[in-house]
């Protein structure tokens, strides 16, 4: 089996490549700079550029395309320009992949489209699964456009899986940004800490994507979140306890808004309690279902 992974040089992509290589998959990574692919993975992973669509000659029923490409959402303030890049980098990647498939006239066995639990918008009360409607706000808008960018493949008969991912915990990403204040005895949740934190260990993110690639009946949206989401105040407590540091120093909402503007409201001060209903129903067994075990594995 062959995986063609767009954006495979990133945080999730690198873990996915490791997971798939271990299972014997052949890997092709699509990147804006294929030289980076050799730097990141060394020999054994083929790096190709998007332009020209040469990679499409590798398509066939034993190939699965995974689309992870997109500009970082939480890197800083959302100026008009940054917002435009967040949307266009995702929508253009999805459309370019669809166009290359159309032009090649050969279909892949399946297509995995990245998305995020931000699809559901800010929801601080009840846990939700994939049956919930999309919500309000910029992130929900981005996710709808992102998911729609490759929908044309469904009409062509391609099995399309959408992975609505929560906050991925690994060495890097969101967790690396949260650690410094905790290490310096100033840790605590953002704002009230009542907002939901739908997290997933990086090993489960990669494991679940592989599971959905290999499960022929899998199609449609799947929440990629651990089965035990928590509120941020509990997340801060478990993180503090794992590091043996205090965890009660709430970061005031006004300070986060001052620093990060709208991004603070949508990414840090609101959230969802998203459940992986369809993934569990399909038979995926989580390696790290509880936050304590996940953080201990990464930081213990
Ligand atoms: P990364 O930012 O680590 O990597 C994404 C990859 O996308 C990069 O390696 C890069 O590949 C490519 N990329 C970056 N900017 C652009 C751009 N402007 N245009 C085209 N391609 C670009 O992301 P993650 O691995 O963390 O996440 C993968 C996807 O999953 C992302 O779309 C992300 O939004 C989504 N997601 C991630 C979550 C997380 O917690 N990490 C949570 C929810 C969703 P190259 O430079 O090789 O072209």
From TrEMBL:
Ranges of residues in domain DUF1731: 251-298
Residue ranges that the Swiss-Prot or TrEMBL entry lists as coiled coil: none
InterPro entries the UniProt entry points to: DUF1731, Epimerase_deHydtase, NAD(P)-bd_dom_sf, SDR39U1
Domain NAD-dependent epimerase/dehydratase residues, every copy: 4-223
Pfam families documented for this protein: DUF1731, Epimerase
Lineage: Bacteria, Pseudomonadati, Thermodesulfobacteriota, Desulfovibrionia, Desulfovibrionales
Name listed for the protein in its UniProt record: NAD-dependent epimerase/dehydratase
Family statement drawn from the similarity comment of this UniProt entry: Belongs to the NAD(P)-dependent epimerase/dehydratase family. SDR39U1 subfamily.
């Amino acid at each position: 089996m062959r995986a063609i992974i767009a954006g495979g040089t990133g945080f999730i992509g690198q873990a996915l490549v490791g997971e798939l290589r271990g299972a014997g998959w052949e890997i092709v990574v699509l990147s804006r700079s294929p030289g980076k692919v050799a730097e990141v993975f060394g020999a054994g992973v083929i790096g190709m550029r998007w332009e020209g669509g040469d990679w499409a000659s590798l398509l066939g029923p034993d190939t699965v395309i995974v689309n992870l490409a997109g500009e970082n959402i939480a890197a800083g303030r959302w100026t008009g320009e940054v917002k435009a890049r967040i949307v266009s980098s995702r929508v253009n990647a999805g459309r370019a992949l669809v166009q290359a498939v159309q032009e090649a006239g050969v279909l892949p066995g399946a297509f995995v489209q990245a998305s995020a639990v931000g699809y559901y918008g800010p929801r601080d009360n009840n846990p939700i699964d994939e049956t919930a409607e999309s919500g309000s706000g910029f992130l929900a808008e981005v996710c709808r456009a992102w998911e729609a960018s490759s929908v044309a493949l469904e009409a062509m008969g391609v099995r399309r899986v959408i992975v609505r991912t929560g906050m991925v915990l690994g060495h890097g990403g969101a967790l690396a940004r949260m650690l410094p204040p905790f290490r310096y005895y100033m840790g605590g949740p953002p704002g009230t800490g009542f907002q939901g934190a739908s997290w997933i260990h990086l090993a489960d993110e990669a494991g679940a994507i592989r599971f959905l690639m290999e499960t022929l009946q899998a199609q449609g949206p799947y929440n990629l979140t651990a089965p035990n989401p928590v509120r941020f105040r509990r997340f801060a407590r478990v993180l503090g306890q794992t590091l043996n540091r205090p965890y009660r120093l709430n970061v005031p909402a006004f300070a986060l808004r001052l620093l990060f503007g709208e991004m603070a409201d949508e990414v840090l001060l609101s959230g969802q309690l998203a459940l992986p209903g369809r993934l569990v129903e399909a038979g995926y067994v989580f390696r790290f279902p509880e936050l304590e075990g996940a953080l201990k594995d990464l930081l213990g």
